[in-house]
Amino acid sequence: MSEVGRIVATLMQAREMAIVSHVTPDGDCLGSMLALALALKQQGKRAISVNADPVPETLQFLPGQADIVSPDRVTRIPPLLVVVDSTDMERAGPVISTWDRQVEMIINIDHHVSNSFFGHLNMVDSSAAATAELIYALLQRMPVRITPEIATCLYTALITDTGSFQYENCTATTLRLAADLLEQGAKAQLMREYLWERKPLASLHLLSASLATLTLGCDNQIAWMKVTEAMLADSGLAPEYAESLVNYPRSIAGVEVSLLFRELPGGLVKVNLRSKKKVDVNRVAEAFDGGGHRRAAGCIIKGELNEVIAMVVAAVSKEL
Ligand SMILES: [Mn+2]
């Protein structure tokens, strides 16, 4: 039996499981986790969805999101653990990353090129635009009916991980799947509203403050912006509002690599990296213990903001 066949058989045989996804959750990790949980519940199983962080406001329309539990509220960990959209167990946060010693079986479903194949069973395909593509392939091998709720979760995952079907990872397969999901009742209007049409005013002020820090280097091939702790505190916003800012420098003509540097508490800096055509930002991020994809990656570095900027810009320059 193929690895995917074994994953399907394991899921169909199990009575209960916990499905977990990564910290600072995004549309793909939540959409994939919730779609799988809804499908398994439909098969009469007890599937719990667990995430260490709160659901971002922009994703609070996802069906099933209100049932997501925090890991410290899970009193009895089921013997089967399914980890989605995460390169390794650490990505699920400090609590969940210790569960590997307490469960009997781990299934790892992911599309990051930097995935460490940490599961007993692994379904890892970096050619998939989103983990949701892999979840859909699994569901097609089960007697699951794709409900509008499941379709909404999977469609949201596709739209967020492909930048609304703009990025290089979006293939004909992705678009065919998106079309299928719309036919199966994905609530596209609800999604549009939550994702793009109800931003807090403060998020535009944060964008404006961050744009004021825009700097170009390396013959204008690298562009970066900062978000300091003070900027985020002044905005009164949750950190998730800073994450998407990395796409602004990327839109400049001639820029190959776009970077966002965000101060975190405890002397840490979160770096988001994006590239257009040439630079493998996953490789750059891995040098700083991060990872992701060729065109989108991230890492967290200890150090003073401007020192971290100098270090990462130097590392990116070497790739150009
Ligand atoms: Mn993803």
Describe the structure using short key phrases.
320 residues, alpha/beta, inorganic pyrophosphatase (n-terminal core), Diaminopimelate Epimerase, Chain A, domain 1, 2 domains, six-stranded mixed sheet, five-stranded parallel sheet, 12 helices, 11 strands, globular, binds manganese (II) ion
Regions with pLDDT < 50 over 5+ consecutive residues?
none
Class by alpha and beta content = alpha/beta
The residue fraction in helices comes out at 25-40%
Which small compounds were modeled alongside the protein? manganese (II) ion
Can you write the helix and strand succession as a string? Answer: HEHEEEEHHHHHEEHHHEEHEEH
The strands making up the biggest β-sheet line up spatially as 6-7-8-9-11-10
- CATH architecture grouping of the largest domain: Alpha-Beta Complex
Biggest β-sheet description: 6 strands, mixed
Number of domains: 2
Strand content: 15-25%
CATH homologous superfamily name of the largest domain? Answer: inorganic pyrophosphatase (n-terminal core)
Kindly provide the name of the CATH class of the largest domain: Alpha Beta
How many distinct helices?
12
The gyration radius over C-alpha positions equals: 19 Å
